[in-house]
Design brief:
The complex is a heterodimer of chains A (316) and B (305).
Chain A lengths: L1 H12 L2 H14 L3 H27 L4 H6 L6 H4 L9 H6 L4 H5 L4 H32 L5 H10 L9 H10 L6 H5 L6 H12 L3 H9 L4 H12 L1 H16 L3 H6 L8 H8 L7 H21 L1 H13 L2
Helix pairs in contact in A: 3-18, 8-12, 8-15, 8-17, 12-15, 13-14, 15-19
Chain B lengths: L7 H9 L2 H34 L2 E4 L3 E5 L3 H7 L2 H32 L4 H15 L2 H11 L6 H8 L14 H26 L3 H9 L4 H29 L3 H7 L10 H11 L3 H29 L1
Antiparallel strand pairs in B: 1-2
Helix pairs in contact in B: 2-13, 4-8, 4-10, 5-8, 6-11, 8-10, 10-13, 12-13
The chains are: A mainly alpha (316), B mainly alpha (305).
């Protein structure tokens, strides 16, 4: 029925190419010199910020000798491999899928898995415990809650890198050195995430809690059925930031774990680079591999990411 | 809850644990895990460091005798410590102003909603989500003294090859440029959100008053952006002060200690030279310096806000 009504419109649209062309011409003529300057600036910014990545990713797919041979003079082939140059060798090597890698027992696949285990552990546990803490501060009755809040927020001002050495001593005393626990336990609560979640929870009207209380809900049920469903974007944002933080963490796993089998990708990447010879291809492949998960997540959830960072500055 | 009649002890129990108090206990269970975490992993290490800074202490040998403030006295005469402090301050002092000004310029330039600016914004955020180790590895190869990408660019414009991170005077500036490249997006996002928060009516009023775009920026944007700008400054100073990974990965503090920032020096003392006691003392001093800097900045922020 609607189709018949629409058909005159479709016919009218068929006349459009002419007007579209006219519009395009008009648009091109209306470009001001300032716009051209703007576009040139856009182009240079993209070049400055993306060239290192493009170089890295493309070079990881070509032979060592070809990466170096094409550096001088600077040309399109400095970056873009010729059709016969594409290869997966470097990826096979760093994951011990060929002889060369097996000989040096490079296990980037293992480290990637470790990174996923640690990240999943931290993101899930921090999602649980930070939500509980933020719910406590924004909703529950307790005497002198402000003192506790200061106790939590003050840790924001403790520089993490500086206290890592003593933190290592503590974790070692507890017997967690060289375990996954060493990489997960210190991060299951975060002052930053608690603080951000409190802001999210405060925006949820208190009347909803009261309605739930009248219906006989306890604290856990209020949190589960009222607060959490209404703060999904906030929880996603915080999980994303937490994932990125823990995936990219370097100094702590370097200190806390010396067992190669449970080491995370960032440290494995850094440690295999300290050998004498420079293996360009392997470095590029390793760097690409270590970045893929965060970049995919970032591309899918960029909006949450931007909002998360923006919120730290404007609301905090 | 239980059908039985309350005995003497049970009623005493009930008198103490009133409904309200029971409620408090339940509520406390929500915050307990976080409190345990902060106490064990954030506060206790500080006191533990304070203690081990007064001992001869190493990871292998454990505590070997109380030495009082000897570590701190040694620090006073430790040329390498003063050097690391100087390097860190130069790094922070050079990086922060450039980064914040660039971030502000980018935020103003890219605040217009268009496809072009959205693409550029995503591009600027790419280094931000990438790990510092990956960035260090890529840039180490770009800065490579023989076959780096920068050598390629230099030769294409007819300049001779040039050493970057292996040159005593250029290593720190090279790292600074790299870190600005990595961190500028973070400041930019926050400043953009700050810009969005400025009500449009102020600009309209300024236009009515005949203000040109420079006057609008100077008299409307900047004063209203001040709290956000200060926040960016405070956090970036604290972050940058703790720079470690690029130095570890690219220069190991060299050449000639020219990039040995304080956290890297602490790492060297504690883990390479096995002197945890001295490393702890260094950590304590750095902690105090950072707290003083943060406090000072917060005071400025507070009075002007």
């Amino acid at each position: 029925m609607e189709n018949t009504q629409d058909s005159p419109n479709i016919r009218r649209n068929q006349v459009k190419p002419v007007t579209l062309r006219a519009a395009l011409t008009k648009k091109v003529l209306s470009i001001r010199p300032l716009d051209i300057v703007r576009w040139i600036a856009y182009f240079f910014l993209v070049v400055i910020f993306l060239t290192p990545f493009i170089w890295t990713i493309l070079a990881s797919f070509r032979q060592e000798s070809e990466i170096l041979a094409n550096l001088f003079p600077l040309s399109i082939h400095t970056f873009w491999p010729r059709p016969d140059e594409w290869t997966l060798d470097h990826y096979k090597t760093i994951m011990s899928l060929n002889e060369e890698g097996a000989r040096e027992s490079l296990r980037f696949d293992r480290s990637l898995l470790n990174s996923f285990i640690v990240s999943a552990g931290v993101v899930i546990s921090s999602l649980i415990f930070n939500t509980l803490a933020a719910f406590f501060f924004s909703r529950l009755p307790f005497p002198r809650k402000n003192v506790l809040l200061i106790y939590v927020i003050a840790t924001l001002f403790v520089p993490v890198q500086v206290t890592l050495v003593p933190l290592f001593i503590v974790v070692r005393q507890m017997g967690f050195a060289n375990t996954y626990w060493a990489m997960i336990l210190p991060w299951f609560a975060s002052p930053f995430v608690i603080f951000a979640l409190i802001q999210f929870f405060k925006e949820i009207p208190y009347e909803l809690d009261e309605a739930a209380i009248i219906d006989g809900a306890n604290y856990v049920q209020i949190l589960r059925h009222v607060i959490m469903p209404l703060s999904v974007p906030g929880l996603i944002t915080m999980s994303l930031l937490e994932f990125q933080f823990i995936w990219n963490l370097f100094l702590w796993p370097l200190i806390a774990v010396s067992n190669k089998n449970i080491q995370v990708i960032q440290v494995t990447l850094a440690l295999t680079q300290t050998q004498r010879t420079t293996f360009w291809g392997r470095r590029f492949a390793g760097a690409s591999l270590a970045s893929v998960p965060v970049i995919i997540l970032f591309m899918l959830l960029q909006r949450y990411y931007t909002e998360g960072i923006a919120q730290t500055g404007v609301k905090g | 809850m239980q059908g039985t009649a309350p005995t003497e002890t049970e009623s005493a129990f009930n008198r103490f644990f009133t409904w309200r108090r029971r409620n408090y206990i339940v509520a406390f269970m929500f915050i307990l895990p976080a409190l345990i975490n902060f106490t064990l992993f954030r506060y206790y290490p500080i006191f533990s460091a304070a203690r081990s800074s007064l001992y001869n202490y190493s990871l292998l040998g454990g505590y070997r005798g109380f030495i009082g403030f000897d570590h701190y006295i040694r620090m006073w005469g430790d040329e390498a410590f003063w050097n690391s402090l100087r390097v860190t301050l130069i790094y922070v002092g050079a990086k922060i102003p450039i980064q914040v000004i660039l971030a502000l310029a980018l935020a103003l330039f890219l605040s217009k909603q268009s496809l072009g600016s959205a693409i550029v914004r995503s591009a600027i955020m790419a280094p931000l989500v990438t790990s510092i180790i990956v960035v260090s590895i890529i840039w180490a190869l770009m800065y490579h003294s023989e076959q780096g990408l920068f050598q390629s660019v230099l030769s294409s414009v007819g300049l001779p090859k040039m050493r970057f991170i292996s040159h005593e005077n250029r290593a720190l500036p090279s790292l600074t440029v790299m870190m600005i490249w990595k961190d500028v997006g973070f400041s930019m996002i926050i400043l953009m959100a700050g810009l969005k928060g400025i009500p449009q009516v102020y600009y309209e009023a300024a236009i009515v008053d005949g203000a040109n775009s420079w006057q609008r920026f100077w008299n409307v944007t900047l004063p209203l952006l001040r709290p956000v700008l200060m926040f960016v400054l405070v956090t970036q100073v604290a972050f940058s002060f703790q720079m470690f990974a690029p130095v570890y990965q690219m220069t190991k503090g060299g050449p000639l200690e020219s990039t040995n920032v304080i956290v890297h020096y602490i790492y060297q003392q504690g883990f390479l030279f096995q002197d945890m006691g001295y490393a702890s003392a260094l950590s304590m001093v750095t902690l105090v310096i950072l707290l003083i800097i943060s406090y000072g900045q917060m005071r400025i922020l507070d009075t002007d806000y």
